[in-house]
Amino acid sequence: MEDKKVVTRGIMNGLLFVLLYSLLVTGIPLINILAFIALPLPLLYMTSVYGLKTGILTGSLSSIVAILISLIFSSIILLPIGFALIGVLGGYYQYMKKSAVERLSIFIIAPFLFSAIIYVVIEGLYGISILGAVRDTMYETQNLAETFAVDVYDDAFIDAYIQMLRDMMPFLLLIFGAIYGFIVYGLSTLMFKRVGITYNKLPPFRDWEFPRYFIVFYFIFLVLGLFPFEQGSFMASVSLIGFNIFSIFLVLQGLSFIQTYMYYKKASKASMIMVTIGIVLCMLLISLAVFFVRIIGMFDMMLRIRDRFKE
To answer: SS3 of 106, please?
Structure first.
């Protein structure tokens, strides 16, 4: 009876995923935005309740159907796979009762990495230049304005603007990942409340702990930064931004550890806040301070030094 219930819910949530994806690729204004935001939720629910195996099976079958829809609407076939992965990964973290900080982290990192892959695929395999399309649009606008004797911008401005976008693209993808991650995290907590799933809430900052495998990603991007990528190329920017984002996680871990240390030393809340602000200001003014806080975060992430305070 339980197996039948799981199959029924799997079919319903798989169809809901396909429906949301159909609404996304058809391009109906506002509705496609809502579908874009809600797409990971059906698979997130299945994985949260029934585990990774069920989530992968449901995600695989529904992704196949969504890929067929992508072929009809000439959309990128990797899109449904990306949304499925976000939902399954987020659900797996919930199923394993991971902390809210870890769930939030995966909701941010997964969209960032996948959007970067999509960008590379579009530019490399499909031969479609997103920035080239932006440049063409600006040239068309310029030509149209000239017919009405209106001076908008010249060729030099367009080239400088496109170069700026190219340099900022990984950062913009990171911002997108962070915003999308926070939205999906918020929607997932509302869904958990609605269906009665127990979940971990975000703790005080002093209790923020990121998973150890972040160190692996940190060193991966560190090594990528040693490769002789062409300066200003997308891969060079991705390696730099990837290194920076995981450096930020290490810094946050370090600041959290410092607050934990002060908390167990019976420091007042005002002292903890003032010290944290002071350290942040030092990091903004002295690059060496960032290095030391990052090292503290790295050791705490690897060895969980803060656990000794709780013993």
So the answer is: helix
